[in-house]
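Researcher: Go.
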Amino acid sequence: MFGVSDLLSLVISAFIILPAVVFLRETGYLIVSGIFGVKNPRLTIGTGPRIIKFGIVDIRKYYHLYSWFSYDALKWKNNFAYICIYAGPIFMNLALALTLNALLANGTIQESVKFWDRFVFYALYYVLFDIVPMKTFNGRPNNGLIIYELLRYGKRIDYNQEPFIPSTTDVEKQYEEEMERIEEIREQEKENTSVQENEKIEQQKEQEKEELKEQEEQEKKEVIEQRQKGN
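Model: Structure:
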């Protein structure tokens, strides 16, 4: 039966373990690409508006699973370099999983064993997801399929035009455009709110005028009635 302890485990897995595994996976790209002279690398954590950017790390407002690596160019461009870069996340998570598993097996890690067991599980899950050649959403190849195509054909043959690893310059440009679009929407909402408030004020003024006019007419009627009674 799914109980409170299971719910707690689910929350920990979703908000701590999975994001950490994904981030470490992306660092695999960074480490290996650095060997081949990567230019303008960046690790982006989360989505939405930027909270802070320091060095190559870009932290966004909405923290969860979505972290990614981007770069502009490599100093040494060849199939071997690209194969190594695409294999980077696989080796990173595999090394992490094997190291943690060895520490658990020999008793070095004795506290929070379930936590680290789940960490190993999700690290190996991503290894499996990356290493088995397959196409993912929108027909995009995974790391394993790209490595297979580069080894067998010497190039990508999946016909997907989207770059597997985005350009940092393009990512920054898209971010600035998105922030400008959001700012325009906010300004438009402010203008609409201001117009609505002005219309509401005008309606209130008109209503007050009508009420004042009705009150004056009522007073005139009362005066006329009093005069008629006096006569």
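Model: Residues 122 and 208 are 67 Å apart (CA to CA).
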